[in-house]
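To assess whether ligand presence alters the predicted conformation, the chain was also submitted together with coenzyme A. Input:
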Amino acid sequence: MALSIELLNKTHIKSSFECGYPSLNNYIKTQASQDVKRNISVCYVLSDNPDKTVAGYYTLSSHAVSLEDLPEDLRKKLPTSYPVVPTALLGRLAVNKAYQGKRLGEMLLLDALNRCANLAESIGTMAVIVDPIDEKAMGFYKAYGFISLPKSIRLFMSVKTIKTLQGE
Ligand SMILES: CC(C)(COP(=O)(O)OP(=O)(O)OC[C@H]1O[C@@H](n2cnc3c(N)ncnc32)[C@H](O)[C@@H]1OP(=O)(O)O)[C@@H](O)C(=O)NCCC(=O)NCCS
């Protein structure tokens, strides 16, 4: 395998993408390019070169989270003058079944977290939010240190935590 993480472009082969979840398969096949064109999200693909088959992908968007939706211990440390705080949303992440179980999901997740921590150097971003597709996916993220947001199935990791992990 000659894998590289690249921004989605027209040369990537998406038609055979199958991760076990129709919504995530359809998204990369039919919606991702449109969202990128409209600057709604960016989509990074794990490209299996030289034919450029999409082995996996993730999407990132900026996302405002209400202060009241944050865990209380964190909220207490933030100024109440900001009703919402800036975060990055890791909206989707999936690995093609033929490539699953080879630590490529982990590779994509760590790439996304590093990218968000770097982004926080140039635009205020205090955390990464993920929307797990189900309980199983929630387990995947929690194993990497994501914590639950109260009142939702969303998960959260502060940029501070990512930077601590980067330093380890
Ligand atoms: C979840 C997913 C991205 C993981 O990718 P992968 O390449 O198969 O996983 P990796 O080989 O990198 O595994 C890394 C770790 O996560 C665990 N893991 C893998 N898939 C998991 C899942 N669906 N749920 C919980 N844990 C999972 C592995 O057991 C491994 O744990 P270990 O460190 O204890 O060995 C992939 O299975 C997938 O695309 N699933 C369908 C879509 C999905 O659930 N997306 C995520 C949420 S939207």
